[in-house]
Design goal:
Order of helices and strands: EEEHEEHEEHEEHHHHEHHH
Helix content: 40-55%
Distance between the termini: 35 Å
Strand content: 15-25%
Radius of gyration: 17 Å
Shape: globular
Strand order of the largest sheet: 1-2-3-4-6-8-10
Length: 246
């Protein structure tokens, strides 16, 4: 990356000369668990990546041992704060799903819960050989996951992943179509950046138009919004998730 990285407490962000933006989670001491402050920062970063200079957005982490272990189970939340955090999660999933430029996730190490949802909201994924991916919604009682997984890997596979809540590794993720290719754990980000450079070399208007066409014909953005609204309402008036249950 040629541009000097800008850094804040929980993420890093930089853009190279080719227009490839690299957004990294940077909370390794917490396995990149996502709390309210991190959600707000991620939303700001994704909004900033809409800049005309950016052609592709890559989402990764500063630690190749894990993209994200999901929501921060240690964050203390009262009822209102729990609803607000769920709203932020739903908004982030929607913003990444509907991002107007191509998105690529470097899925190394733990990619669980909210981390897995962010990964499958991206257009493409490079799996690290150490990938551990899990969608724990059924185990936790959370109505999350179908909107993007059905688009990505089909109804039967989405049922298998969501209803079992099982952990899968890189080889199975590749076989099921969750990742496009697998790279050595420490090289997953580099592989994602290489793919991003290939995409960034194409005319951006054509790439953006193709993405819009694919999404319009598939309906994934509408499904993502509907799922997010359901999650928020479940948090507000249903059993919801409290401290220690995310």
């Amino acid at each position: 990356m040629s541009d000097e990285a800008s850094r804040s407490a929980l993420t890093t962000f930089e853009v190279d000369e080719a227009g490839v933006a690299l957004l990294r989670f940077d909370r390794p001491e917490a396995r990149n668990a996502i709390d309210t402050a991190m959600l707000e920062e991620l939303l700001d970063r994704v909004a900033g990546a809409r800049d005309e200079a950016v052609r592709v957005l890559v989402i990764s982490s500063t630690d190749h041992m894990g993209l994200s272990a999901g929501a921060d189970i240690r964050e203390r939340l009262d009822a209102d704060a729990g609803v607000r955090r769920m709203e932020l999660f739903a908004r982030l999933y929607d913003e990444i799903t509907g991002f107007p430029k191509p998105t690529i996730a470097a899925c190394h190490g733990d990619c669980i819960g909210g981390g897995a949802e962010i990964a499958v909201a991206c257009d493409m994924r490079i799996g690290g050989s150490n990938l551990r991916m899990r969608f724990p919604g059924a185990a936790l009682g959370v109505p999350a996951g179908p909107a993007r997984l059905v688009t990505l890997c089909g109804l039967a596979t989405a049922k298998y992943l969501l209803l079992s809540s099982r952990m899968i590794g890189a080889d199975e993720a590749l076989r099921l179509g969750l990742v496009n290719r697998v790279a050595p754990a420490a090289a997953a980000e580099d592989a994602a950046l290489e793919l991003a450079a290939e995409v960034a070399a194409h005319p951006p208007e054509a790439v953006a138009r193709l993405k819009r066409m694919l999404h319009e014909w598939d309906g994934v953005e509408e499904r993502s919004r509907a799922e997010g609204e359901g999650q928020v309402e479940w948090q507000r008036s249903g059993p919801g998730l409290g401290e220690g249950r995310f």
